[in-house]
Design a protein that fits this description.
Blueprint (H helix, E strand, L loop, with lengths): L2 H22 E4 L3 E7 L2 E6 L2 E4 L5 E8 L3 E11 L5 E12 L2 H6 L4 H18 L3 H6 L1 H16 L4 E12 L2 H80 L2 H20 L13 H27 L1
Antiparallel strand pairs: 1-4, 2-3, 2-5, 6-7, 7-8
Length: about 325
């Protein structure tokens, strides 16, 4: 063998060794797991970092992302329990926990997950009425998450979240719901207005009742005071009558004349101050009237004189 041939063989062996060495080294990036197949059979899973495999015997089977992923579920028509057709779409968040199971337990993981989700959406939505469907979106999400997570568990993955993005009823149904909502609001407004009128009437009646009670109490108090005044006036009249009777019994003529003159003067005063009298007809002469007044004055002076003398004694 010539020297050149030996050199070529050595160089070839060196290149082959380098190629084999580098083919045995596998650097796995963070967030990924690689499956290794030996002669077509799964043997192990390579974790992130520096790994070694047997060249020409082992090969990388699948590169699986272990990060949380998002899958858009396309819009589909679903019939509800009360026979209303709605359009529903969703978004799915999932994470692979076991790379080998996600590769070898199901073919085309995303396609299987999407169809599984669409099927369960039809099942869950179809078991609910339209009103319940529109008002309980969180309940739908929870039920979907529970059912689908249990179904994909053999695939080495976990469902982290399922959200219904949009629920679209038909246009005519939306218009009917809007009319129904408007009717309900008008009904509530009428009820509130009726309640307000009722409360207003009740308060007005209570106020009128209270006013009547206060007015009745005022009249009662006034009548009580008027009766008390009449009673006192009657007592005064009775005392005056007793005093006059005593004076008559004692023969005091001046006191009698003074009493008669006082009543006479009060009667003339009442006639003169009456509002319905415009012309006063006197049944006596003016001179007699003046003389009567003079006589009354004289009687009063005599009475006051006697009273003063009795007081000085």
């Amino acid at each position: 063998m010539s020297m050149e041939s030996a050199t070529f063989v050595v160089m070839s062996l060196g290149v082959m060794i380098v190629v084999i060495f580098f083919s045995a080294i596998q650097i796995i990036p963070q967030g990924f797991h690689y499956t290794v197949e030996r002669f077509g059979r799964y043997t192990l899973t390579l974790l992130p970092g520096l790994n070694f495999i047997i060249p020409f015997v082992d090969r990388i089977g699948a590169r699986v992302s272990m990060m949380e992923q998002v899958l858009d579920v396309p819009t589909q028509e679903v019939i509800t329990k009360d026979n209303a057709t709605v359009s529903v779409d969703a978004v799915v968040f999932y994470q692979v926990l076991n790379a080998a199971e996600s590769v070898y337990q199901v073919a085309n993981l995303e396609y299987a997950l999407m169809n599984l989700t669409m099927t369960n959406i039809r099942t869950v939505v179809g078991s609910m009425d339209l009103d319940e469907l529109l008002s309980n979106r969180n309940v739908i999400n929870e039920r979907l998450l529970q059912v689908i997570d249990e179904a994909v568990s053999p695939w080495g993955m976990k469902m982290t979240r399922i959200d219904i993005k949009d629920i679209k009823p038909p246009r005519d149904l939306v218009d009917a719901m809007a009319r129904q909502m408007k009717a309900e609001r008008d009904k509530r407004a009428q009820i509130l207005e009726a309640e307000g009128d009722k409360n207003s009437n009740i308060l007005r009646a209570e106020g009128l009742k209270q006013a009547q009670i206060l007015e009745s109490e005022g009249r009662r108090e006034a009548a009580y005071r008027e009766a008390e005044a009449r009673e006192r006036l009657a007592d005064a009249e009775a005392k005056a009558t007793v005093a006059v009777s005593r004076a008559i019994a004692e023969g005091d003529v001046q006191a009698i004349n003074y009493f008669v003159a006082q009543k006479y003067t009060d009667a003339l005063k009442a006639i003169g101050t009456a509002k319905n009298q415009k012309i006063i007809l006197m049944p006596f002469e003016a001179s007699s009237f003046i003389g009567s007044i003079s006589g009354i004055s004289a009687i009063a002076r005599e009475v006051f004189k006697v009273n003063n003398e009795n007081s000085s004694k």
